[in-house]
Amino acid sequence: MLRRLDAEPLRIRNVGAEVAVGDWVVPSVELDRVEAVLPRRSAFVRRASFEGNRAESQTIAANIDVVMLVHALTSPPNQRRLERELVLAWDSGARPVVVLTKRDLVDDPGASELSLHAAAPGVPIITASGISGEGVDELAAFAAGNATIALLGASGVGKSTLINALVGRGAQATAAVREGDGRGRHTTVATQLIRLPGGGWLVDTPGVRAVSLWSSGRGIERAFADVFELMDDCRFRDCKHEDEPGCAVQAAIAAGTLDPLRLASMKRLVAEEAALEEEQRVQLKARDRRGVRKLRVK
Q1: Per-residue pLDDT tens digits for 211-242
Q2: How many CB atoms are located within 10 Å of the residue 281 CB?
Q3: Of 12, 87, 132, 232, whose CB count within 10 A is highest?
Q4: How far is CA 36 from the centre of its chain?
Q5: CATH topology for 219-297?
Q6: Angle (CA) 121 228 220, round 5°
Q7: Measured between alpha carbons, how far is 106 from 87 in angstroms, rounded to an integer?
Q8: Do domains 40-204 and 219-297 have the same CATH topology?
Q9: Taking a C-beta distance cutoff of 8 angstroms, is the pair 82, 119 a contact?
Q10: Backbone torsions φ then ψ of 182, nearest 5 degrees
Q11: Contact 82, 75 (CB under 8 A)
């Protein structure tokens, strides 16, 4: 489902047009195909999720104002996943918000909130329940002014139940998680655009198991703003933050104000991004060479 200039959802063929859910499009007069796609103001992009296509991007949704990164309070807090999601969210151009669901199933969410606050400094964290309704109005308020919000999270974190509460009807099917490991089953099988009753739009994405980076503008810097702020105080500008004298990052770790796992996570993401960018360069060169050979044949 796409969006038209008149703000009504529209189902038409997108043959020959690269379109993502949330795009604003200009349809043909016959309404049988997409004539043009308007420039995106934001796009949630990750690396293609299947092997053999690592240097290809996948746009999950476009023109998003707020990305809600959904985690369930019934599972142990996953700081490393949240850090990855935040890199993608900041790079998308949208504003990230962390949503902790299933509040009705836990007595005290404090420990999970504290853990994820450490992985998302400065990012709002909201606890909610699609069953009790807690936090639903607060989340709906992000769509004020005809804004678009998107929910991103793994299967089983309660996105569909939360969406039903936001929409006020059974818009999405729900399913129980497995008892053994708490994993969920996919109840949303395709990215969908849903109009909210109070105004605005909601993008629901299928459960994302692998959160793979694509390329970073300043996503890593913004997701790890606390670490980068420390780096500014290091004695040497080329400090690797290992055993150099005057390293402010290592001093913070020694003082217990920075988790060493957070520094290690940032370094992994920087290395992953660099490797992916190299793959993209190699693939681009290969395409250019193929294009030159075809040109010579003619």
Answers
A1: 667 666 789 999 999 999 999 999 999 999 99
A2: 11
A3: 87
A4: 26
A5: Ribonucleotide Reductase Protein R1; domain 1 (1.10.40)
A6: 70
A7: 28
A8: no
A9: yes
A10: 75, 10
A11: no
User: CB of 184 within 8 A of CB of 98?
Assistant: no
Fold of 40-204: Rossmann fold (3.40.50)
CB-CB contact of 100 with 125 (8 Å): yes
CA 273 vs. chain centroid, Å, equals 16
Judge whether residue 50 has pLDDT over 70: no
For the chain, strand residue ranges (E) read: 2-4, 9-10, 24-27, 34-37, 43-47, 57-62, 66-72, 95-101, 125-127, 148-153, 192-195, 201-204
Lowest mean pLDDT among 50-64, 104-118, 119-133, 158-172: 50-64
- Which pair of structure tokens corresponds to residue 110? 């404090």
Amino acid in the structure at residue 211: V
Phi, psi of 247 (to 5 degrees): -80, 115
Question: How far separated are the first and last CA of the chain, in Å rounded?
Answer: 41
Cα angle 214, 172, 85; round to 5: 20
pLDDT of residue 228: 96
Give me the torsion for CA of 190, 191, 194, 200, rounded to 10°.
180
pTM, entire model:
0.81
Domain boundaries, the chain: 1-39, 40-204, 219-297
Task: Look up tokens 């990750």; give the residue.
Answer: 46
DSSP letter for each residue of 99-112 = EEE-GGG-S--HHH
CA distances from 19 to 13, 61, 285 (A): 10, 9, 26
The answer to whether 24 touches 3, Cβ cutoff 8 Å, is yes
Structure tokens at 285: 């060169």
Asked if residue 109 lies in contact with residue 100, where contact means CB atoms within 8 angstroms, the answer is yes
